[in-house]
Amino acid sequence: MLDGQNVFDDQTASFGVSWKLGDAVLQAMAAAKLGEIVVIGVDHAGPKRIFEYTPWPDTSMKDGGGGEAFLVWVDKTVLPDAQIRYRLLDDRRQRAIGGSSLGGLMAMYALASRPQTWGNAICMSGSWWWDDLHMQKWLPTVWQTALKVRIWLDVGTDKDGLDDALTMRDTLIKLGQKEPQTLGFYKAEGAAHSEAWWGKRVHLAVEYLFDPGNLKAPF
């Protein structure tokens, strides 16, 4: 999970509210919805977060473009170390990368550019607007339909980029993703662009990706 500061603990969260994802995973495991799962929070780079979490520069923002180098670091340093420390399965189908806002943008980029590494992505309130909707234009040029992937895509209805998210959903469906089997799309009524709202629904994303036998709620 990207923006690792915000994933587990309110005391480390950027705005004092975390996703409490550890609690959500433990509760789901206790309810026998999930098997054993490891969540790794990768902290962002503070003032360099925008540069680190964007695949391409955006001239209007005068920033961005460090996303590829960030993923090389994840590939060569974070994942090998995690596999040793936590006995992770070496199986792309059991591995997900996720984030919100620019983190959601980067999760989609990682999935599309490295489908041999990532089999799943969590894209919450993705910043699809970045670089004039470049992601929607880029995806069809690299998408590998033969490598099956599953995606959680969500968005709030309160100034959270709903129209862009709907366009992204349409793009993914055209590329072969199917609702709800391989594309979980969730529109969170009244939800805004904040950690508090993402924390309320991140359990849905995890349960969707890692409990594929239950696709009814909330879709």
List key phrases describing it.
40% helix; four-stranded parallel sheet; 6 strands; two-stranded antiparallel ribbon; single chain; alpha/beta; 12% strand; globular; Rossmann fold; 219 residues; 7 helices
The ordered H/E elements are HHEEHEHEHEHEH
Figure out the total of helices: 7
CATH architecture: 3-Layer(aba) Sandwich
Radius of gyration: 16 Å
Bin the helical content: 40-55%
Average pLDDT across residues? Answer: 93
For the termini, the CA-CA separation is: 23 Å
CATH class: Alpha Beta
Beta-strand segment tally: 6
Residue fraction in strands: 5-15%
Write up what this structure looks like:
With 219 residues, this protein is an alpha/beta fold. The protein has one domain: Alpha/Beta hydrolase fold, catalytic domain (Rossmann fold, 3-Layer(aba) Sandwich), CATH 3.40.50.1820. 40% of the residues lie in helices and 12% in strands. The protein is built from seven helices and six strands. The strands form two sheets. The protein has a four-stranded parallel β-sheet, sandwiched between helices. The longest helix is centred in the middle third of the chain and has 20 residues, at 67-86. The two termini are 23 Å apart. The model has no long low-confidence stretch (mean pLDDT 93).
Layout of strands and helices, then pairs:
Elements: H1 21-30, H2 49-52, E1 57-58, E2 63-64, H3 67-86, E3 96-100, H4 102-113, E4 120-124, H5 130-142, E5 150-156, H6 162-174, E6 183-188, H7 195-210
Parallel strand pairs: 3-4, 4-5, 5-6
Antiparallel strand pairs: 1-2
Helix pairs in contact: 1-7, 4-5, 5-6
